[in-house]
Amino acid sequence: QVQLVESGGDLVQAGGSLRLSCAASGSIFSINVMGWYRQAPGKERELVALITSGGRTQYADSVKGRFTIARDNAENTVYLQMNSLKPEDTAVYYCHAGKYGSSIVNYWGKGTLVTVSS
User: Fold this and answer.
1) Coil, strand or helix: which one is 98?
2) What is the DSSP letter of 102?
3) SS3 sequence, 9-57?
4) Which helix (H) or strand (E) holds 113?
5) 18: exposed, middle or buried (C-beta count within 10 Å: 0-12, 13-18, 19+)?
6) Neighbour-count burial for 82-96, b at 16+ CB within 10 Å, e otherwise
7) In what order do the strands lie in the sheet with 77-82?
C-alpha cells in the first residue's frame, strides 16, 4: 500500500501562486508515475500534470507554462508549483501514484482545496 498526503491548498487571488506538496509513504518502491489531478464542482476529474520515475513530465494544455511538477526522490515528495492562477483553476487537487507492472495499481490522496478568487 501507498499512502499519499497532500498539503498546500489555500484561497488565493487571481494571478497569485501556490505550491502543493504530496508526501508518499508505505510501499513506494516501484512507483512508476506520480501526478496531480483536479476536480472542479460539477466536472469530472482531470489530469493536471504527471512525472515519471525517469523524470518525464506531462501537462494539461490549460496549465502549460504556468504550473511545474517536480519530484524529490530523497523525500518521497511531489510538488506542484502553480503560478498565474486563474479562477478556473479552482478545484480539489488530488495526488496520484501509479504502479504499472504485471498489474495496474493506482493510489490517491484525499485531496486539497485550491480556491482562486477573481
Assistant:
1) strand
2) S
3) CCEEECCCCEEEEEEEEECCCCCCEEEEEEECCCCCCEEEEEEECCCCE
4) strand 112-117
5) buried
6) beebeeebbbbbbbb
7) 2-7, 18-26, 77-82, 67-72
CA separation for the pair 15, 4 (Å, rounded):
28
Q: Look-up: residue for cell 515528495? A: 77
Residues in the chain, total:
118
- The CA–CA distances, whole Å, from 98 to 30, 50, 59, 68, 72 equal 9, 10, 16, 19, 16
Q: Which three cell numbers stand for residue 118?
A: 477573481
| Per-residue pLDDT tens digits for 53-98 | 999 999 999 999 999 999 998 888 999 999 999 999 999 999 999 9
Identify the residue whose cell numbers are 499519499: 4
